[in-house]
Design goal:
The protein is an alpha+beta fold and 956 residues long. Helices cover 50% and strands 13% of the residues. The longest helix has 51 residues, at 854-904. The protein is globular.
Length: 956
């Protein structure tokens, strides 16, 4: 060992031989370091492979075409667009004028001499082997060379005739059909034969059917219109191929005709933001992240990586200490033959280097292999195909270097400890005693105070989550630094313990060099679990308090508003058949125009209705008839606004609980609706029988005691009147009304009348759905059967079963607790192995003086349990701080918003300040504090041999 190179070469050879000799320990440390490297490398490979290049994105969206032309729906006025063709707006500002909204003839904007392929899409309910399935129908000549790459063929062939289609593999999977099967659509008498299967590389889970242009959508629209239903909406774009392509200047010229262009050349070489007029317009931009946001994200990633490396070092450090302790005679021989302390440190550090390099190689190689092997699974999860398998050597090398650095950092403390032992102590096996550092606890205490102050400042003086998280991380590192001193404090409790746990505790305190890292590793894992669990338990309590039921507990509602409610009877019967229904209350909705019209109007022959609000009952804060679009609330001071929403019944915006999808909350039904909703008012039942409309809101009832319902048949005229602040033109039907007294929850229903009353008022109705009360809460099996039946109908049914507040994060908390338990058991097991290596001489002495074999198991179990218990107690205390800080930050933010709302007059303060509780998850803490240490102790006792090898103990 005359030179630096030769000394390190020899040290690495010794470390490699020692690692090969202790295969179990080496494999454990290698796995701890390699698993994170594997995960991060696989994530990098997956992300880079799924990140498409501009050329790949262009190939998947437009095939071999040079551009996609589509209508901006702006009546042909000039527009501005972004380079990708995803955002656009008219050049002119239409502040107080009607916004242009109408079609444009896109074909007139296509340059002469271009090759054009039409791409038209719509939707239909297609017949399947299970029933009906709502799917997208796309008319595109897939065999044309221009479309190559848009829909790759998987099997079969492309459609060649008008009665042939091909389908995505996902459609075939969910429909139960296959190549050779036939399909049709509801309201359609034509059948089509499936001749091929394809996929959409960017949307693998989309059920889509492809047909030749004009083969499906046009005849299907005629058939639907003939059946009395509204014509389905379609969208058309054009794949354009032109010599020379389309530059950014050409795209802007086409924009002047009201057409949006997605150009291949522009996607590959986009212009600078300064050359994009859209980005210079107020309210529009490239929406790129700011430098501050990038810095915050980088800091967050660095913090996570740093804490992960710290956890691995804390877990792996004791394992290296085990190896150094078991190799102390070998290290002593190195010193006896002239080796310096630096050589001893080099040998132990080389152990970390060897394991780190091996972990880097194994983790990286396995990441590449697993990513390639699991590529189909990953693509299905991400719902898109990879581009090229993208391997970035520099990125993988950087990740691999983290493994090497982690191995070296984990071996530093054991290396320093081993080098401080004398040659005589190493050769004779004497352990010696070294006082703990007095500086480290002081540094840790300072870090705790500093981190706590930063977190407290962040939660009270600011609303920054980053400051709170950073302060909490510093405080946790301070607790880790204080771990040796805290372990010493635990030792004072040994006087009250029985013999075996007292021996285990005193051994742990006496040998803090091996106990502290294991306790710190447990502390870090448990602190993270407790922090997340506390935050989530507090959030759950807040959500539970804010939860508003949509129905009485156990009740069920179902609404079908499409296609004139034609599937409503089938949905009602399915619910009646599969759920334990007690009372069923059928409801209808008011319809204006053709039966198949959309509930909110739109389309030829369609209209809508409006519940008339009397002028005298209009809240001054929400008036809509002021000229010039002026906000009427600006006329009033905050005190006046606050007084209005507190004392003026016209400004009461409460809906009496719940929400429903029918416009205005107007339903047509009988007294059973009141029974299911739990409305206990005999006057309301009597009013329905007398032909009155039952109202839960005073504002809609005029001075004559009636409610006006306006039928708007000319939607265009109504929209123009609304833009001018005028009432919509239409026929008003006045119905005598009954006001339900306050205190009754209506769950979103504002008005209710019987079918006879609606008919007498000249109102047409259509089936809308039903409410159901149940004998008991429907179980999971019944819900699954009902969902399957509704899926066969192919209907867009809005089904709701009121189960009360349901916490959806409980499984995540359980998974965190299990993870913390596994880390705790692993860290405690490593510390126990090191303790057994240290205490082998003591165990031999106990066996020699007649101690029973179970003492070895008992002592091992208590040694493991003591480490686990200390780590869990400290981690539980350390984990509560960041959670409390984050909750205080949220409370401050909510309180500021509440105070601002009161100051502006938009909150009367009667509801009180926001409820942002801090809840400690005692169940999780109990499991960590009791079950985990007990389980670790039992596991260590079970895997420890009762009898060790009989050997002579040397005098010490």
């Amino acid at each position: 060992m005359k030179t630096w190179f030769h000394s390190w070469r020899a040290a690495i050879r010794i470390a490699r031989r020692d690692a090969w000799r202790s295969k179990g320990r080496s494999a454990l440390v290698l796995a701890m370091i390699a698993l994170p490297i594997l995960g991060v490398s696989a994530l990098d490979l997956t992300y880079r492979s799924s990140e498409l290049s501009p050329m790949e994105r262009a190939d998947r969206s437009m095939g071999t075409a040079d551009a996609i032309f589509r209508d901006a729906e702006a009546e042909g006025v000039p527009i501005l667009q972004d380079p990708q063709g995803e955002m656009h707006t008219p050049v002119k500002d239409y502040k107080d004028q009607p916004w242009p909204n109408g079609p444009t003839d896109v074909t007139k904007a296509i340059p002469a001499g271009s090759t054009v392929v039409t791409d038209r899409s719509g939707s239909a309910k297609l017949t399947t082997s299970h029933g009906l399935l709502s799917a997208e129908v796309r008319e595109l000549k897939a065999s044309d060379p221009i479309t190559r790459g848009i829909m790759p063929l998987l099997s079969g062939r492309f459609p060649e005739k008008n009665d042939e289609v091909m389908a995505t593999s996902h459609f075939l999977e969910v429909s139960g059909l296959s190549i050779g099967s036939t399909l049709s659509a509801r309201n359609f008498d034509r059948t089509y034969r499936i001749v091929g299967s394809y996929e959409l590389p960017d949307a693998l889970a989309v059920p889509q059917v492809n047909a030749l242009p004009g083969a499906f959508l046009t005849p299907y629209a005629k058939a639907v219109e003939k059946s009395g239903m509204p014509t389905p909406d379609t969208s058309t774009s054009y794949l354009v191929k032109k010599s020379g392509g389309f530059t950014w200047n050409t795209v802007q010229q086409v924009n002047a005709k009201g057409v949006v262009v997605a150009s291949r050349a522009v996607m590959i070489n986009p212009p600078a933001d300064s050359e994009v007029p859209l980005f210079q317009k107020e309210g529009w931009g490239s929406f790129e992240s700011s430098p501050a946001a990038d810095a915050a994200a980088l800091a967050a990633v660095a913090t996570v990586v740093g804490l992960a490396m710290l956890e691995i070092c804390l877990l792996a450090g004791p394992a290296f200490a085990v190896g150094a302790r078991r190799s102390r005679r070998q290290l002593g021989l190195v010193g006896a033959n002239g080796g310096a302390r630096s050589h001893i440190r080099a040998i132990v550090l080389s152990g970390g280097l060897v394991i780190g390099v091996a972990a880097a190689i194994v983790g990286t190689v396995l990441a590449v292999i697993l990513t390639l092997a699991l590529q189909p699974v990953l693509e299905d999860m991400m719902n898109q195909r990879f581009g090229a398998f993208d391997v970035r050597p520099l990125e993988l090398l950087g990740i691999a270097l983290l493994a090497v650095l982690t191995g070296l950092l984990a071996a530093i403390v054991p290396a320093i400890t081993a080098s401080r032992q004398t040659v005589l102590a190493s050769l004779t096996g004497r352990r010696g005693v070294r006082r703990s550092s007095r500086v480290l606890p002081l540094i840790g205490l300072a870090a705790i105070l500093l981190g706590g102050a930063i977190a407290l400042f962040g939660s009270i003086a600011t609303e920054s989550v980053v400051i709170v998280g950073g302060g909490s991380a510093i405080a946790e590192l301070g607790v880790v630094a204080m771990t040796p001193a805290l372990v010493g404090l635990f030792g004072r409790t040994g006087r009250w313990l029985p013999l075996s746990p007292r021996l285990a505790l005193r051994d742990a305190v006496r040998n803090r060099g091996r106990t502290a890292p294991a306790v710190a590793a447990v502390l870090a894992a448990v602190a993270g679990t407790v922090a997340v669990s506390t935050f989530m338990a507090s959030s759950e309590a807040q959500q539970r308090a804010a939860y508003e039921a949509r129905l009485p507990h156990g009740a069920v509602s179902a609404f079908v508003l499409e296609e004139g409610g034609r599937d409503v009877p089938a949905v009602r019967e399915a619910i009646q058949r599969y759920l334990p229904v007690d009372v069923r209350a059928d409801v209808e909705r008011v319809s204006v125009g053709k039966p198949g019209c959309d509930p909110w109007g739109g389309g030829a022959g369609c209209g809508r209705y409006e519940v008339v609000l009397p002028k005298a009952h209009e809240c001054p804060l929400y008036a809509t008839s002021l000229p010039g679009g002026v906000d009427p609330s600006e006329k009033y001071t905050p005190d006046q606004r606050r007084k209005m929403i507190t004392e003026d019944w016209r400004c009461d915006q409460s809906s009496r609980g719940g929400w429903m999808s029918v416009d205005g909350g107007l339903l047509v039904g009988d007294a059973k609706v009141l029974q299911v909703l739990g409305v206990d008012d005999p006057g309301a039942v009597k009013a329905l029988a007398e032909g009155k409309i039952v109202s839960f809101s005073r504002a809609e009832i005029d001075k004559n005691g009636t409610v006006g319902i306006k039928q708007v048949t000319d939607i265009a005229a109504a929209d123009k009147a609304s833009e001018k602040g005028l009432p919509s033109p239409g026929k008003v039907s006045s119905v005598p009304a009954y006001l339900v007294p306050k205190g009754q929850k209506s769950y979103g229903v504002q008005l209710l009348m019987t079918p006879a009353t609606a008919k007498a008022a000249g109102l047409s109705t259509l089936p809308a759905g039903a409410y159901f009360s149940t004998e008991r809460m429907p179980d999971t099996e019944a819900r699954q059967k009902l969902d399957g039946e509704l899926a066969k109908l192919g209907s867009n049914a809005e089904l709701h079963v009121e189960e009360g507040f349901v916490n959806e994060d409980s499984l995540f908390v359980i998974a965190l607790a299990v993870f913390a338990g596994l880390v705790t058991i692993g860290a405690a097991g490593i510390a126990t192995g090191l303790a057994q290596a240290d205490a082998e001489a003591d165990l031999k002495t106990l066996a020699a003086v007649g101690a029973p074999p179970r003492v070895r198991r008992t002592l091992s179990g208590f040694q493991c349990g003591v480490v686990a218990a200390m780590g869990v107690v400290l981690g539980s205390a350390a984990g509560v701080l960041p959670a409390i800080g984050l909750r205080l930050t949220e409370a401050r933010e909510a309180t500021n918003f509440y105070e601002q709302a009161i100051a502006q007059g938009w909150d009367n303060g009667l509801s009180g300040p926001p409820y942002v509780p801090i809840v400690i998850p005692w169940e999780t803490l109990a499991g960590l504090l009791v079950a985990v240490p007990l389980g670790a102790a039992l596991l260590a006792a079970l895997v420890t041999r009762s009898r060790g090898a009989v050997a002579r103990r040397a005098a010490t």
